[in-house]
Design goal:
The protein is an alpha/beta fold and about 400 residues long. It contains 14 helices and 13 strands. The chain has a seven-stranded mixed sheet with strand order 2-8-7-6-5-3-4, with helices on both faces. Helix 5 links the parallel strand 3 and strand 4. Helix 3 runs parallel beside helix 11. The longest helix has 23 residues. The protein binds pyridoxal-5'-phosphate (PLP). The site of pyridoxal-5'-phosphate (PLP) has 11 residues, from helix 4.
Length: about 400
C-alpha cells in the first residue's frame, strides 16, 4: 500500500457537497450515529479499514478510565484489574460466540496470529497453504518459520469474482498433500473485501486432518457471525478496526483441545498447560485499552450487528453498483453482495492505483488507500457507519471525471 504525504490545509469539503448530492433518505438513527463521530472536515474518509476511530461516547469513557487508572495506579493493577479483564473477556466471548476459556485479549491481529504461528512445533517439510492476498505480516511470519524450521509455504491466488463457494474450497483443497498441517485464510480479504466461505474450507480441511487459522481482522463487528459456527481452529482479529476500540485491542480464539500443546511466546508457568491464559503473558500493558472494549461493545450493541452489517453492505453496493457503469472503471470485489460487505476495491483502466488515490485526495479531497499487489490493482474504499451516500456520490463524481481523463 502506498502512503501519501498528507499536507492538506483545513478546508470544509463537506460543506461543498453540491445540492443534488444531498439526496439520501438519511434517517434520524444514522444521523445520530454520524453525530457521535468527530470527523475531520478536510477530507471524506473512505479509508476506515486501517483504524476506524472511536465514537465520541466511547472515547470519553475511555479517557475517564485512563484518568482513573492513572490515579489508582498499582492499586488498580493489583486489585480490580483482573476482575475487570475477566468480565470483558466473558463479554467478548459472548459477542464472538466462543467459550471464554478459548479466548484471550491481545493487542491486534498480528499479535494473535503470530502467537499461533510461532507456537506450533513445526517440523522440516511441514506445509502451510496461504494466499498471496493474505496480509503481508502473516506471510512474512510464515517466511520466518520457513527459514527457521524448513516449513514450506504453498501460496494460492484467490480469484477476484468467484461464482461458487466450491471454486474457493477447491483452490485450497487442491494444494493439500500428506505434509499439509495448516491452512491460513482471511475471513474478509483486506485489499478486496472478499468474504471467504470459512466453514466450508474448515470442514474440507478437517476431513483431511488439516488445521485452519482464520485472519478475521476485518470481520469482527462488521459482519454477523459466531466463531463456533465457523469450525476453525484459530481465529484472530483486531478490535480497533470495526468494533471501534482504541488502537491496540485484539482477540485470539484457540480451540480448546489445541491449547495444551501450543507453545507461548512469553514464558508462563503459572497456569495449567490447558489454560488459554498461558498464551497471554505480555507484561504490564495499557489496561485502559482492555476496559474500553466494554464501552465499544455497548456502542456496537446500540447499533446492533445486523443493522450495522446491512448499512455497510448498502453503502458498498450503492457506490459499486454505480461505479461499475462508468466507462473504464472496474471493481476488484466479488459481484455477489453476499461475498462482501463494507469494503470494496476499484480501479480505472490506464490509471496507476497510487496516482488514483493521490488525485482523489489532492483534487477531490477523498481519502483512500492504493493497492497494487497480488492481482489487485485499485484503491480500497472503506466507508463506515457515519458515511453518507452524499459523500459516496461525491466520490463517484470524482471517479467519473478521472476515468474521462
Ligand atoms: C487481513 C488483515 N490481517 C491482519 C492485519 C493486521 O492488523 P493489526 O495491524 O491490527 O495487527 C490487517 C490490518 O489491516 C489486515 O487487514
Amino acid at each position: 500500500m502506498t502512503a501519501i504525504p498528507f499536507t492538506l490545509k483545513a478546508k470544509n469539503i463537506l460543506a461543498e457537497i453540491p445540492q443534488e448530492f444531498t439526496n439520501e433518505k438519511f434517517d434520524d438513527f444514522w444521523l445520530q450515529i454520524r453525530n457521535d463521530y468527530k470527523l475531520k472536515p478536510d477530507y471524506i474518509n473512505l479509508e476506515n479499514g486501517y483504524f476506524s476511530m472511536m465514537a465520541q461516547p466511547v472515547l470519553n469513557k475511555y479517557l475517564d478510565d485512563v484518568r482513573l487508572i492513572n490515579t489508582e495506579a498499582s492499586y488498580y493493577m493489583r486489585t480490580i484489574q483482573f476482575e475487570n479483564k475477566k468480565k470483558i473477556n466473558d463479554r467478548l466471548a459472548n459477542l464472538l460466540g466462543c467459550s471464554p476459556e478459548e479466548l484471550i485479549i491481545t493487542r491486534n491481529t498480528t499479535e494473535s496470529l503470530d502467537t499461533v504461528i510461532s507456537g506450533i512445533d513445526w517440523k522440516e517439510g511441514d506445509e502451510v497453504i496461504m494466499a498471496e492476498q493474505d496480509y503481508g505480516s502473516m506471510l512474512d511470519m510464515f517466511k520466518q518459520q520457513s527459514k527457521r524450521y524448513g516449513l514450506v509455504q504453498k501460496i494460492v491466488s484467490v480469484p477476484l469474482d468467484p461464482k461458487t463457494d466450491e471454486e474457493i474450497v477447491d483452490l485450497y483443497e487442491k494444494s493439500i498433500t500428506p505434509k499439509t498441517r495448516l491452512i491460513m485464510i482471511c475471513h474478509m480479504i483486506n485489499i478486496t473485501g472478499h468474504i471467504l466461505p470459512v466453514k466450508k474450507i474448515c470442514d474440507m480441511a478437517h476431513a483431511k486432518g488439516v488445521e485452519v487459522m482464520v485472519d478475521g481482522a476485518h470481520a469482527v463487528a462488521h459482519i454477523d457471525f459466531k466463531i463456533s459456527e465457523l469450525n476453525c481452529d484459530y481465529y484472530g482479529s483486531s478490535l480497533h478496526k470495526w468494533l471501534g476500540t482504541p488502537m491496540g485491542a485484539g482477540i485470539l480464539f484457540i480451540r480448546k483441545e489445541k491449547i495444551k500443546t501450543h507453545w507461548p511466546i512469553y514464558g508462563e508457568f503459572g497456569f495449567e498447560e490447558t489454560d488459554v491464559r498461558k498464551l497471554n503473558h505480555t507484561g504490564t500493558h495499557p489496561v485502559s485499552t482492555d476496559i474500553a472494549i466494554h464501552h465499544a461493545i455497548d456502542y456496537h450493541e446500540k447499533i446492533g450487528i445486523k443493522r450495522k452489517e446491512d448499512r455497510l453492505r448498502f453503502l458498498q453496493t450503492y457506490w459499486t453498483g454505480k461505479a461499475k457503469k462508468i466507462k473504464k472503471v472496474y471493481i476488484n470485489t466479488p459481484a455477489d453482495p453476499a461475498r462482501s460487505c463494507g469494503i470494496a476495491n476499484v480501479g480505472i483502466e490506464g490509471v496507476k492505483p497510487a496516482d488514483l488515490s493521490k488525485i482523489l485526495l489532492e483534487k477531490y479531497k477523498v481519502w483512500t488507500v492504493a493497492i497494487d499487489t497480488a492481482n489487485v490493482h485499485g484503491v480500497r474504499i472503506t466507508p463506515h457507519v457515519y458515511t453518507t451516500t452524499a459523500e459516496l456520490d461525491l466520490f463517484l463524481k470524482a471517479l467519473a471525471e478521472i476515468a474521462q481523463g
